[in-house]
Design brief:
Distance between the termini: 14 Å
Structural class: alpha/beta
Strand content: 25-35%
Largest sheet: 7 strands, mixed
Shape: globular
Order of helices and strands: EEEHEHHEHEEEEEHEHHEHEE
Radius of gyration: 18 Å
Number of helices: 8
């Protein structure tokens, strides 16, 4: 199951930034939506998959580490700590080291409580890679594919393999021919794609590596078949304009807004 913890492009009341929970142990992005989880739910997270380094997608990583470090020791010392594994592009991981876990913005939890037993372990991933996560608690192995994104910093999207097809999250992206090439021939169960701005601010979308409704329409025209499409990442003040313009699009796909708290039942392949 995939649970939408946050799907807003910024914050306001009942608006939390991007985070998805796959089953109960894998986060896809770690925006402010992570704060919707109870402490015991936070302590079950073993892996975090990051699309890119922007704050609205990573801000909960240091807070999560701080919240669960004692719980993940299981009553023992640092040597009993079960670390959280953070997966991202090399450039994204370097940005976290330089600008977040630098001892100025936040303590370096890649070396705490000790360098030999840190609460966070960073892992590089690569475009086109398939990450495989082991079975746990009756769950089958999960496969997550790393997809291309086109943003202002190095970025990726992700696709979760399910018996119904791929659950695809584009991450933050502008027009992106490489994505549609990667999806060509794949069976798509659901597509979660960003549209951050209305068409009246299409120039801002273009220079900031995002989509507006008209560019969304051109992107979706490259997607085969008829797919359930969910719109994520509109800024809180942009939601009415974005949704109105999207509803006016002529598309063969079923398009609707993503909602916080929404759940996708996507069992892993057995």
């Amino acid at each position: 199951m995939i649970r939408v913890l946050g799907c807003s492009g910024s914050i306001a009341a009942r608006c939390h930034t991007t985070a998805f929970l796959l089953d109960d142990d894998i986060l896809i992005d770690a925006g402010s939506g992570v704060g919707e989880l109870r402490l015991d739910e936070l302590a079950r997270i073993d892996h975090i998959l990051i699309t890119h380094s922007h704050l609205d997608h990573v801000l909960s990583i240091p807070l999560l580490a701080d919240s669960v470090i004692k719980l993940r020791m299981g009553g023992g010392g640092p040597q009993t700590l079960r670390p959280i594994h953070v997966h991202a592009l090399p450039e994204t991981l370097q940005a976290l080291r330089d600008h977040l876990f630098n001892g100025v913005i936040w303590p370096d939890f890649t070396r705490l409580p000790s360098a030999s037993h840190p609460v966070l372990v960073l892992h590089e991933l690569a475009l086109g890679q398939t990450l495989r996560f082991p079975a746990r608690g009756g769950l089958d192995e999960r496969a997550v594919h790393v997809l291309p994104a086109a943003h202002t910093v190095p970025a990726v999207g992700y696709a979760v393999d399910t018996p119904q097809g791929w659950w695809v999250f584009t991450g933050d992206t502008g027009p992106n021919p490489a994505l549609w090439q990667a999806l060509n021939g794949q069976r798509i169960a659901q597509l979660v794609i960003e549209t951050a701005f209305g068409d009246e601010e299409a120039h801002l979308a273009m220079i900031s590596g995002h989509l507006a409704p008209q560019t969304l329409a051109r992107e979706l025209a490259q997607l085969d078949g008829e797919v359930s499409v969910y719109i994520t990442h509109p800024k809180p003040g942009e939601v009415p304009a974005v949704l109105s313009q999207i509803r006016a699009l002529d598309s063969r796909h079923r398009i609707e807004p993503l909602r916080e708290g929404q759940r996708f039942h996507v069992p892993a392949e057995g």
